[in-house]
Amino acid sequence: MMIVSTLDELRTARLLLDGVVGLAPTMGYLHEGHLSLARRAKAECRAVVVSIFVNPAQFGPNEDLSKYPRDLDRDLRLLESAGVDLVWTPTPEVMYPPGFQTWVEVEEMARPLEGAMRPGHFRGVTTIVAKLFNAVQPGRAYFGQKDAQQAAVIRQMARDLDFPIEIIVCPIIREADGLAMSSRNIYLDAEQRKAATILYRALSAAKDEFEKGERKAGILRQIIKEIIASEPLARMQYVSCSDYDTLQELEKVTGKTLLSTAVFIGKTRLIDNFVLE
Ligand code: AMP
Fold first, then answer.
1. What ranges do the domains of the chain cover?
2. Less CB within 10 Å around the terminal CB: N or C of the chain?
């Protein structure tokens, strides 16, 4: 496995990879969710590139950039055993050299949900992903359904800017009790960790009602809100029942739909979602 940091090293290493290259961008502190992207890329592409970069531009001023968990040695061992060919670990100076002033911004798709709660977040995401796409030139790029709006925003960006890259969205990998895997779960103490299953339980309850025939989006949202409100350690930020492609809030579920929520458990912000088909 090749491991590189600078842009020159990345370009030199990239020249050694031929055929379709799959890219999985990450912020490190890897878990099974990240590895599922690398393994899927391995199965579908001739070579796999994983980037590890905690992107300062996608963190708000009061977010967890400085304490975001890191363990590069462990990450590299995991990626090696997943059969990854090339790992790129750029520094902030490589990605944002002095004088940097060009940004990529998706408009409507980036406004609701995470975009409304985290101003500037998606501008940071789309800018870094565009730079990763330009540098790595993958044929396919792998993202997790865990960050459903991110995947939608990136799909839009790739379409609008004519990136010749297939965007592949992989299912959410969960712990045994339903909690979606996330690098941020490490922040939870034992009591909070138990409370954190409330996102999965609330979304599951709404999905059950949908499967029994409920189609009113307001009722599905209400079910989720009430269950989250029943957990004293949880503070809900939003609950959404939106069109899967446009992310516009629905009155009635008729086509592919995204049920999503963001909840603080203590100081830790968790997101999760289910897709209704
Ligand atoms: P991050 O390191 O949090 O930026 O995540 C890197 C990529 O891994 C993103 O495309 C995420 O959506 C994806 N990812 C994170 N957690 C999970 C999960 N539990 N299941 C599937 N994909 C995930």
1. 2-170, 183-276
2. C
Distance from chain centroid for Cα 234: 21
Helix axes 72-81, 32-44, angle to 10 degrees: 40
Enumerate residue ranges in the chain where pLDDT < 50: none
Q: In angstroms, what is the span from residue 163 Cα to ligand 1's centroid?
A: 21
Alpha-carbon span 197 to 231, nearest angstrom: 10
The total of other beta-carbon atoms located within 10 Å of residue 95's CB is: 19
Asked: is 183-276 a CATH 3.40.50.1000 domain? The reply is: no
Whole-number pLDDT of residue 35: 98
Query: Which residue puts its alpha carbon closest to atom 7 of ligand 1?
Result: 26
**Which pair of structure tokens corresponds to residue 268?**
């830790």
CB of 45 shorter than 6 A to ligand 1: no
Please provide the CATH number assigned to the domain covering 2-170.
3.40.50.620
**DSSP state, residue 196:** T
180 CB less than 6 Å from ligand 1? yes
For the Cβ of 143 lying below 6 angstroms from any atom of ligand 1, the answer is yes
Cβ of 36 less than 6 Å from ligand 1: yes
Q: Whose CA is nearest to atom 12 of ligand 1?
A: 144
Using alpha carbons only, give the angle 263, 268, 272 rounded to the nearest 5 degrees: 40
